[in-house]
Write a sequence for this structure.
């Protein structure tokens, strides 16, 4: 018999689901970034793509997809849109024609810098050490879930 204070999974309220807490926090982050990104004509996914590309020029589409946790069929339209906006450049790898390499343009670097103005620490209401600790914990949570999903397949 279960202790009386323990509820069954079917009776758990939405507010007690960790997955919902993470999901709704993600939505809140989107609202935080929206004013800045709207001015720049970017979606959040386009913005994080620019951030990832700012780490190194000439990344492969597949490597970029792994970094962003995006499948190629999701990432390719994002890259095409960013290229049409003049923020990225895509080129076939001369050593391996099957690979496409992506780099930020000067415009892409400027836009990435402008979008970085959002003060996350202040919005989160955390001290720098608490912010860093939470970020490490969320990354560990994500990595554990990714690992668990890989183990199931």
């Amino acid at each position: 018999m279960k202790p009386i204070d323990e509820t069954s999974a079917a009776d758990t309220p939405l507010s007690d689901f960790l997955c919902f807490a993470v999901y709704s926090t993600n939505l809140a982050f989107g609202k935080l970034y929206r004013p800045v990104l709207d001015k720049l004509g970017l979606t959040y996914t386009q913005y994080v793509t620019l951030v990832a590309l700012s780490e190194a020029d000439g990344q492969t589409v597949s490597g970029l997809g792994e970094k962003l946790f995006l499948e190629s069929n999701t990432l390719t339209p994002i890259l095409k849109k960013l290229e049409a906006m003049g923020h990225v450049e895509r080129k076939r790898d001369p050593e391996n024609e099957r690979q496409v390499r992506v780099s930020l343009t000067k415009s892409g670097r400027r836009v990435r810098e402008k979008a970085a103005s959002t003060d996350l620490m202040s919005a989160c209401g955390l001290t720098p050490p608490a912010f860093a600790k939470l970020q490490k914990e969320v990354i560990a949570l994500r990595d554990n879930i990714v690992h668990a999903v890989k183990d199931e397949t």
Observations:
- The beta strands are 59-60, 88-93, 96-104.
- The mean pLDDT is 91.
